[in-house]
Amino acid sequence: QSAFGRAIEADPGWAAPWAMRGRTKMMTANYAAAVEDYTKAIGLEPGNAQYLMWRCQSLMAMDLWAQAAEDAETLLKANPAMPQALSLHGWALVNLGDVDRGLAEQDKSIELGKNASFLLRFDGYFRKADWAAATREAEQAIAGGVARPAMHYYRVVGLVEQGKYTEARDAIQQGVARSGNALEIQLAQAYLTGTPAAGALYDVDGSLRSVPRGRDDDLARDQHARADAVPCRAGARVSGAALDERAPDEFRHAVLA
Question: At residue 46, what are phi and psi to the nearest 5 degrees?
Fold first, then answer.
């Protein structure tokens, strides 16, 4: 950040260093500060779509979905067929409660973008309890080369909610093989073993042990991992204090329902 700061001091009217300093802040989960830098860059270079996308993503990470939707709308006004803008706008709409319209925009982004990285419809599928669709989305993303560990988490959630516990166990093992002991893999393990209906795989104490503590930095960097503590779904063993109250209600409900 210091190099970009010096560039800003040398030429405060140059948009690029503001945006790049914002990018470094975003990558270290300093989202509010990133938004400030992106806003300065956008003021200096209003037509830069990349700066708007970065600000939109930071706003999403802060759960400021209405503001994120406004940035995505600005992008769509300039280019209605921009896959990234459609994906972001659809995602924001889903989290604002307009689920069907949001999913339709995300569908269109996938059709236009033809890239597995646009397979991000989990919030909508979770809200609709369409667990089979969520599972397919995760599996297609993984098969398409998306390396984010969150894809394995979503896959496991979808399988567990369909009662496919052995497949969920196998999916966790595949996730470990691809992503090691990433936070999302630990959360997936906790989700499966904290499900009473999972039979021999049910282990509430093991589920609680699977949830790492003191990992807020990792959670903040991955906007797909929306819970700080999803130790299990055995309500009698998990107090409200075990949940991260910063996580959006709809995600906690989707995960713990």
Answer: -60, -25
The parts of the chain modelled with pLDDT lower than 50 are: 215-257
Q: Which two tokens stand for residue 105?
A: 């925009």
How far apart, in whole angstroms, are the C-alpha atoms of residue 11 and residue 214?
A: 39
Burial (CB count within 10 angstroms: exposed 0-12, middle 13-18, buried 19+), residue 88: buried
> So what's the pLDDT on residue 5?
82
- Quote the crossing angle between the two packed helices 150-161 and 183-193, to the nearest 10°: 10
Q: How far apart are the first and last CA of the chain?
A: 42
What gap in Å lies between CA 31 and CA 38, rounded to an integer?
Answer: 10
The model carries a pTM of 0.79
Quick check: 237 and 208 in contact, CB under 8 A? yes
**Amino acid symbol at 37:** D
Residue 226's SS3 state is: coil
DSSP class of residue 146?
-
DSSP assignment of 151-184 equals HHHHHHHHHHHTT-HHHHHHHHHHHHHHHTT-HH
Locate 62 and state its tokens. Answer: 């802060």
How remote is the C-alpha of 226 from its chain's centroid? 7
CA angle 106, 177, 173 (to 5 degrees): 85
C-alpha span between 151 and 138 (Å, rounded): 5
